[in-house]
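cron nightly-structures :: item 1 of 1
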Amino acid sequence: MTQPESPRYRQGMATRRAVLGDAHVDRAEANKTEFDLPFQELITEAAWGHVWSRPELSKRERSLITIALLAALGQDDEVAMHVRATANTGATREDIREALLHVAIYAGVPAANHAIKIARKTFDEMDAAKS
């Protein structure tokens, strides 16, 4: 399996590493298969190369938008992943709390309540890893 070397892919991979961290991306890269290679290429170019790499919003702002959307959609694993990524994006725990308050009003209290539980668990794991 070879990765495309388009400028958009290279930019996407750089942004993906900046947001999620090398360890996460290295694991994802090591675990990709022939079956999911096209999907990995798609998210690297589209999500990370096209959207996350745009200069109009900061990584902090994109991080908060992403967490709120994922919480509203009930995407638990992705919420946790993007909460962990805030260590690289500059979004604070207070920022995340405010985003999830918005989720409560605009997407429903159950979605926000569940995302808050995920965020708290993720923060506990992050704190334990620092110790």
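cron nightly-structures :: done
The domain at 57-131 is CATH 1.20.1290.10 (AhpD-like).
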